[in-house]
Each structure stands twice: as structure tokens, then as C-alpha cells.
Specification:
Order of helices and strands: EEEEEEEEEEE
Distance between the termini: 40 Å
Strand content: over 45%
Number of helices: 0
Shape: globular
Helix content: under 10%
Largest sheet: 7 strands, mixed
Number of strands: 11
Structural class: mainly beta
Length: about 120
């Protein structure tokens, strides 16, 4: 059973950066999984931030491309979300999700517990 674990969240000042990580705690190889990052701010719906396919094709939600970069490292069995130029509007719980499929899907089967990102001075 695939279990995802996010890390790297925290408190950062506006304009700062954070890098989130998502790994499989159960030891399952993520190479054939599409992996995505979602976020949910208080009182708002869940928003897809970015997705990366097994072979590295990426897609981004809204206007996040340019500030956010998704990547993956097969050797470390980990996916990342580099977030730059953070603003208070980026404050949310960030979730990693995965699905055993080649292309980025509209729905995901596996979810992590989330990591909190707070952007505040």
C-alpha cells in the first residue's frame, strides 16, 4: 500500500522560499506514478498546484508556473515542490498525491497527510 509523506513546510516571510518533499514511506517505487501537489487554504477548496509525469513532463495550475517548480528524483524516490517569492496568499496545507498512471490525471488514488506552509511577517 502506497503511503506518501510530505515534509519541508513551515513559517516563511513574504518573498521567501521553501522546498517541499514527498516520499513513499512504504518503500514503493514511485517511478511509474504521476505525482502532484495540491494545496488547501482555510475556508477554500482544494487547488491543484502542479503535476509531474513518470518521465518528467510537468503542468502547473493557474499562474503558479514561474514561482513554483515541481521535480522528481528517482534515485531518492522523492518528488519536490520548490516555491519561490512566496506571498501570504500561498498560505495553505500542501498535499502530495500520486496515481499509478503515465499522464497527469484528474483524480489521484494516494494522498499524504499534508504539510503546513505559512507565509507571514
Amino acid at each position: 500500500h502506497l503511503q506518501l509523506v510530505e515534509s519541508g513546510g513551515g513559517l516563511v516571510q513574504p518573498g521567501g522560499s521553501l522546498k517541499l518533499s514527498c516520499t513513499a514511506s512504504s518503500g514503493i517505487n514511485l517511478d511509474q506514478y504521476a505525482i502532484a501537489w495540491f494545496r488547501q487554504a482555510p475556508g477554500k477548496g482544494r487547488e491543484e498546484v502542479s503535476c509531474i509525469t513518470f518521465n518528467g513532463r510537468t503542468q502547473y495550475g493557474g499562474s503558479l508556473k514561474g514561482r513554483f517548480t515541481i521535480s522528481r528524483d528517482s534515485a531518492k524516490n522523492t518528488a519536490y515542490l520548490q516555491m519561490n517569492s512566496l506571498t501570504p496568499e500561498d498560505t495553505a496545507t500542501y498535499y502530495c498525491a500520486a496515481r499509478h498512471i503515465f499522464n497527469c490525471p484528474s483524480e489521484f488514488d494516494h494522498w499524504g497527510q499534508g504539510t503546513q506552509v505559512t507565509v507571514s511577517s
